[in-house]
Specification:
Blueprint lengths: L1 H60 L4 H10 L11 E5 L5 E4 L11 H7 L1 E7 L6 E11 L2 E11 L1 H51 L14 H50 L4 H32 L8 E4 H11 L1 H6 L3 E6 L5 E4 L1 H18 L5 E8 L3 E7 L7 H4 L19 H11 L3 E7 L3 E9 L9
Helix pairs in contact: 1-4, 4-5, 5-6, 6-11, 7-9, 9-11
Length: 470
Amino acid sequence: MNTKNSLKKSLMQNFILLVFISLVLINIFSSYMFKRFYYKQTIKNAKDTLDMYVDYDKKFYGFTSNDKIKEAINQHPNLFYNNIDQRLEILDIDGTVLFDSEGYKYTAVPEIDSLINNGSATWIGRDSASGERVLTVSTAVKHNEEPIYYLRLFFGLGQVDDFTSKLSIIIAAISLLVLFLCIIISNFISDSIVNPIKYLTRIANRMSKGNYKEKSKLDLKNEIGELSNAMNTLSDEIIKHDELKNEFIANISHELRTPLTSLTGWAYTLKDGDLDKETTELAHDILISESERLSSLLEELLDFSRLISGKISLNKDYFDLKICVENITKQVFPKLEKNKERIELNVSDVSYLYYGDENRIKQVMINLLDNAVKFNKEHGLITINLYQDKDNFFIEVIDEGVGIDEDEIKYIFEKFYAGKKSKSHTGVGLAIVKEIVELHKGSVGVESKLGEGTKFILRLAKEIKDEKDS
């Protein structure tokens, strides 16, 4: 439960943190941009107003030298800018304040260097005389292209700062509302992710307790939906393999019981004695046959166990694949005669020198030929084709038997799978074939039609003996 809660909590925290950071950045950027916009507008208005005063000075005062402006200010200071709304200063060419429309004296001019060097300047800051935040624009008034004094115009920034501050508060309030909505939305989004995971976890817990028939009913078109489908597929596979395992146990118990029953029965018969020679020989033959059958069955199971656990190694060396196949073909002659079947071997007269484990390849061929004999029709033909290309040897084992259902073909090489028409009941023969062939870096395939027969195709990759195998 804590894990589930922490997932939702983590999702919400990450989502809210991302939104919060985004909103903070938006707030900072928007406040900066609004403030910059209004400051630029204020500067533009201030410069337009200052240009108007410059034109006014030239038209009505017409000062031609610095001395004349100083003389006029000293003699008639009240004649200058008495009825204007803005505060305006007249500066000497060295930056000294000659006149202030609001009567401030000894005011500082922080931008004087820029003004003298460039003929104009803009400054934003706190005025030392009034103590207010102000914007100042300054420019030179010239005669014959030479500055004779400077005009410095003040604009108070109190209203602009108040307006932009209120605007920032409004943006912050909207951001808080957006954040609140995002918290609600993130809760729904987290639930849409976490709740299906909780559901799938419950299904997985039930499956872990052996209830493999429990299926997920989620129908989502996303990764969680894919996980749900994968769990259902896994459940089906587990059920199928569980059924195969139970069937295998039942079949192998039957396979073991049959020879054991026969051995026990004939052992008691021999113990009782008073048997004629013919019956005694029959008993010995049956005991030997059933013992060999039991030994073969156990060896097959042990082989399969070693193969799937990876505890078996191949004893590779060069051998003639053609001779190997011919010898195995001869071994099945007795079974063929008993079932009135025929066998045909087709192989070209070229070299079939192969590097592999001869005994294991024999085991593969015996398994395939045993299957062909078991499932072939009476008087049917078993065909073995041996051929090669540049990189591989191929062995085909073809019978004219009952064939394999199309829906069974994909399962016949699986562990413990015994088909509907199987006569071995162990379900490990073809699985062993597949494991051995793949250990030889080869593959095995099957083609079959019901009522027409089955063809197994072995592909064995041509290998060169490695020096370390020597």
